[in-house]
Amino acid sequence: MKKWRLGVGIIVLLGVLGAYFYRPTPTPEVGYYYWKHHFFLTRQPTTPLYIKCLDVEFDHNLYLHPTVFDSPPPPDFIPVIYLENQVFDHIPPPLLAQRLGDELRVLQRKYGFDYHEIQLDCDWTMGTRKHYFALIHELKKQFPVKFSATIRLHQIADFDHTGVPPVDRGVLMYYNMSDFSDPETKNAILDSGVAQTYTRNFDRYPLGLDIALPLYSQATIIRFGSVVGLIEGITAHDVTPHFIPLGNHRYRINATHYFHGRLLYCDDVVRMDEVTPAMLTQALEDLKHLKGVEKILFFRWENRTRYGEKNLQKLVEG
Amino acid sequence: MQWGFKIALGMCLLGVDALACSDNGFVNYVKDESYDFFDASLVGLEKDSPLYYLSTDFFQSTSYNDRSAYYEEQKKKINIAEWYGYCNHALTQKELEKLFYTSYSYEADLSAMTPIVIYRQSFKSRLKNGAFEGYLSYLSDQMRYTYTHGYAKTTEGAKEFNRIVAEGKRLMEQTSDPMLKLRYLYLVVRFDYYGGNYAKVVEYCTQYKNLIHSPHPSVAHEWIDAFHAGALNHLGKGVQANAMAATLLDNQTNPYLGIYDFRIKNDAQWQGLLKSAKTNEDKARYFFLRAQQWKNSPLHEHREMATFGSHSIWFERLTYMVLQDLHASYYRGKHSPKALKSYQLKRDYFVQTLKSLPNPPFVEQYALLYLDLLEQKPLNAEAFERLKHQKATPAQQKFIPFLTYLNRVNGLKNQEELPNLYHTLFTLTPQFSPTMKDALIHYTGVKVGTLYPPKSIQRTIFATLTPQYDVDRWVSVDYDGMDPLALENYWVKTPLSPLEKHIFDRYLDLNSSARSQILGTLFIKHHNYPKAIEYLQKTSKDLLTVSDYNPFNATFGGYNRNGKTVRMTQLSYAKKMQILYGMIAKDPHNPHHHFLLATALYNQSYFGNFSQSSYLYRPRSNPSLSDMDTTGIQKEYALASHYTQDPELKAKIAYGELKLAYHKTLYPNEVITKLNSTTLSWEASEKLLSTDRVKRSKPFAQHVRSYKATYQGTQYGQQAIKACATFKAFR
Predict the structure, then answer these.
(1) What is the ipTM of this complex?
(2) For an interface test with B, which of A224, A240, A256, A262 has the most B Cβ atoms less than 10 Å from its Cβ?
């Protein structure tokens, strides 16, 4: 009898202690990426958290395309620098860091903003890894702030080879996982099946990760067995009678005509790459084993209304 | 500096990719076989005109830059020639160039004199033309506020804007000289355009249309038309803007602007434009321009044109451009099944269009025959006969022997045909553009090479003519893989054919000293030191390679590339090696001599500290299979070991052998074969270069432990075990 009482006592005690120390997993913060050359925002309850501030490319020369702020950026936003890989083949990291630093400071002065974090977006390769990581080191010397970087699925799956960028935190870009230029691709933006083939090593990855999910769509044009271009922002709702459904989100064009500024020819095939709320739910389900996610980010800001901000918030809250 | 090898080997074994990374010079590329057989004289342009040139244009910007650079040059020539005539040769063309084309910074002090003013003053005594001087004065005034592609919106400039425009208009009205009148109009139009006054531009162009378009007193009318098209576009008058842009194609100085200023955004604009066409030729021009927006489908536009305008020059020009695209697609298809499928679909579509023509003109018939030859099919005799009797311009006629020649090269079977072939080749090439001439020589060379046995010198030399995308080809021969005696025989004793002579003169630029250095280096590699000395003595000193470290020294460092700096030329090294062989001949049982020889052979090998003595080019990450042949080195280690009882020397020899074992473990044959594959991706090569293999190798681990157990009692062995992290890794 005494033993029985003791057992119950222990269970009760453990329950009390458990209840006392239990902290529910915090719901990740919802944020958005703003990704245009011009920034303009009317007064709104929600503001974008990440704003692309610099586009860095190399085409015979180094080009830095700063974002033009037609309205003041929100407080506490995080500037993002997008870098094309070709840059690293031509510009040594210290020089590149200097140019980026100068440009960021110009932007900062011009628009009077401040920030506590800088994010770098680059789909680095084995060939550019060394210079990209060196660039981050150089930038850290100039800017005593937190650094984050975007990370692709394959860069986690294969991180022994691709390396881990020397930043404080990463954002897993859970989209663009298929080869958009392959006519056989099912959905170039989000494909849970494809993602599964890359989803490994999350438990070993040394960086804390947030998640970025896509809120965009595109029509991919296939001609003579090749992908020849895309039209952004198009969904199945936009199709006209000239689009003959072929199944699997594909359409055959039955007459040559202009569609959203792009000339489509008879017999072109158009693949609709779009993201539904159900696909976003599935994506979060796929990633539920990823621990310590602090933010769920959506790309892009201007498309949030199509999905509904409240719906997205609910989706994140599970 | 025994630490180098210790650290390097240690890092490898401990999983740090230091060696692999430091050697990361591996560049993987596929030599493309695209031959540029395109010459604009086929469609009535200058041979080297880039206006309808497409085949190397994988990036639109390249094409734009080529076109604008070419026509800027044309524009300058025509402009200077016009002024030269205008001033009755009072100034030379060079002086006129200084006057109008001396660069000037728009940011300069506004009160400073422009180059126009400076040169006008110095030429004043010869000009004696008040009207021309007045024009120069106005031009200078305007130039202070303009720059190459825009109007400088300085505060000063803005304030002065109206004054300058008004002054230009006044001078235009005042002058009776039709050329100056048109030139003033151009300056006013330009200033207004850059100032954003597009309505004004259109107003002037309408008001003065008779001046602009009836018998042209100046080439400036071409530039006014370009601004007119741009202004209409800015004003949203799409149909008129596109119709005007289309006329620019006929211009001498800016036809390419017609291509870039033609912008159709919707069906209404397109239908409006087609309705405005007065003739089928106009209509064909519009289809041609729509095809120039390469994100559209030139093949579809081509087919559409075929229904109403197959005898239009625009159809001919589009055929020429699509043919270039197919040519490039064909070669891309050689490396990718998907690209091949796409090529076939496009080719079939194009052929179907051409075959549907009831009476195909010359270029269309030529295109079909060319496609056959591109795909290595024999020339269709019947179709070729038809082409020969087809109406053609003299410039087009020369493409008939070209097709015959290509067919002949494709069917080449034996070397006896070569003298005759070379004669035809060098008769044919001067008629074509430099690019096509090079392509003919390269194509011939690569085909001719196949008549020689594999690995023969000629085959290798000719194979280097395989071009890359870049027209300015980089030609280099893999001499390192050649037998020096065969190369010597080829260079010194065999008379060169005209094509080989051309290759050496045009691309390889090898004087006798450079040839001697190549032969000397190869003879060192093949351990023929007397021959090496013979040739290196004929080599100029600046061509001899020099060691960084002592090539007779073995250290604990990886690859022996550490220790004291020792500068020794290839020639001194070969001489020392000859002496060493002499010493061994005299005293064949001396273990120290054999050890020294083994060390030197290691150091001149791919892995050693003086590989530049025996390699003309040493790929940093991927040795070849022959580089792994260490038989000679092993033999000398074995002899040294056989003739000595000294445990210290034995420890040294065994450590040398351990290095060889390390290299062999890191680079097994199957890995080398994959590394040297031309289709290997960068990522795959990095994986292959991983040092995990060494870490996992049981035989190598056994080798390391065995060394430790055997030689830890020797002084050298103790030093090696202490200095080299390998031993720690396998502890």
Answers:
(1) 0.79
(2) A224
